[in-house]
Amino acid sequence: MKYFIVLFAVCISISAQEIKFLGEAKPGGIVIGKGEQIVSATLDNTKLQIDKNSIFIFGFDRDASGKFLLNVKFKNKKVQTYEYTMEKKEYEEQHLRLASKYVTPPKKLRNRIQHEAQLMKSARAKIGKVKDALFMEGFVYPVDSVDIRATFGLQRILNGKPSNVHNGLDFGGVEGDSIRAITDGIVRIAGKNFFYNGNFVLLDHGQGLTSVYLHMSKILVKDNQKVEKGSVIGLVGETGRATGPHLHLGVQWYKKRIDPMSLLELKF
Ligand SMILES: [Zn+2]
């Protein structure tokens, strides 16, 4: 790959407060922090959620670059600052051939697409309200056979035209394979037969972290249902904009697009 990342974390203020970090500060990366007696934390201008065990999470968008400052404030009023620097990552292109309605949808589909976008927006508006770090049991792969068909962040060229970016990870599969929740969560929307997503489920893992599972043949959960890590939430299919049966797994931290692999590879 033609990219490289410069990353470092410097502890500027020296004090006795210690935070353990898991994960990597890089484009599409996620970092989980755990300390003691933390009262607040911010990543630049974003206030982070801190749960009762002083756990917090933050992530970096696919196109993140430059300098980021994490400020953590403790009960004894001491503040700890960490600095992360990263270079913009370059992504490979992926050329795909799709039915033309999926590249330039005809007028008659516009209302449906807009309506579905609105439903997704309402579901996403609930994200960030759960303060608990529901993800602290760790992460599992969403399918049994790990056959990665398209990595995160690819620049897509659809029918010869530069199009949207691939904001997820595609696992090849067979129609009817089980799809599992990557960690504990709450179903924010179980969407049926959306134009692009097909049948899909959006899970809220607390503190702004979400995962979405697209193109299901069958949905096995309902809105607002609590699910546990590894529980089956649906079956692999090819509903919506899909070329063959597969699972598209997308992860976000608020609106930041996160590489699902950066969660799946974490060692708790
Ligand atoms: Zn995909």
Short descriptors:
268 residues; mainly beta; Immunoglobulin-like; Glucose Permease (Domain IIA); 2 domains; eight-stranded antiparallel β-sheet; five-stranded antiparallel β-sheet; 22 strands; binds zinc ion
| Count of discrete structural domains | 2
User: Using DSSP, what is the number of strands?
Assistant: 22
Compute the separation of the termini in Å: 28 Å
CATH structural fold name of the largest domain? Glucose Permease (Domain IIA)
Bound molecules: zinc ion
Q: CATH-wise, what's the superfamily of the largest domain?
A: Glucose Permease (Domain IIA)
User: What low-confidence regions span 5 or more consecutive residues with pLDDT below 50?
Assistant: none
CATH architecture annotation name of the largest domain: Distorted Sandwich
Number of helices: 2
Structural class: mainly beta
**What is the typical, i.e. mean, pLDDT?**
93
- As a percent range, the share of helical residues equals under 10%
